[in-house]
Amino acid sequence: MNFIRNTIAVLVGLAIAGLIITLGIRVFPQWITFEAFAPFEHWQRFLYSMRGDNAFFGFLLFISGLGTTVGGVATALIVKYAKVAYAILIGFIMLFIAMLDVIIFPYHPTFYKISIFLTFFPFSWIGGKIVAVIYERKSKRRIAEKMNKTK
């Protein structure tokens, strides 16, 4: 049962990260050069139209970090054990997808290629730590309440 729960947690985290990235790209109307909801269907043509826009790639790094953090939080909330580890797994999967993107499509600037390594892993770790700290505080509070009741 834990395997199914953990698998669902990872899929939910990836879906949330992808949704946040998609919504982030759609925020600025001048960047919408596609007909569909998600830009990923025509990603090569979309990246080609954005190839000289460093502000777009900087914002893509920011929104990817935000999406990975929220996806890591969602994953850590769903799994029962090893919350930070599963949140970090979201970061590794997103990093792998970003590396494939950089390898397949040559339109990314150099700062983006370097910065993806500094974005996905740390932001997913932060998402996992947020949930771990919240759960740790809750357990300490429960223990303190039990000790106070016995007095």
**How far do the termini sit from each other?**
39 Å
Q: Kindly state the mean pLDDT as a whole number?
A: 88
The number of helical runs is 5
The overall strand count is 0
Order of helices and strands: HHHHH
Proportion of strand residues: under 5%
Q: In percent, how helical is the residue content?
A: over 70%
Main beta-sheet annotation:
none
Task: Please tell me about this protein's structure.
This protein is mainly α and 151 residues long. The chain is built from 5 helices and no strands. The chain has helices at residues 2-25, 43-49, 54-78, 83-104, 110-150. Helix 3 packs antiparallel against helix 4 (83-104). The radius of gyration is 19 Å and the shape is elongated.
Give a nutshell description of this structure.
This protein is an all-alpha fold and about 150 residues long.
Note the main attributes of this structure.
151 residues, elongated, mainly alpha
Task: List the topology elements.
Elements: H1 2-25, H2 43-49, H3 54-78, H4 83-104, H5 110-150
Helix pairs in contact: 1-3, 1-4, 3-4, 3-5, 4-5
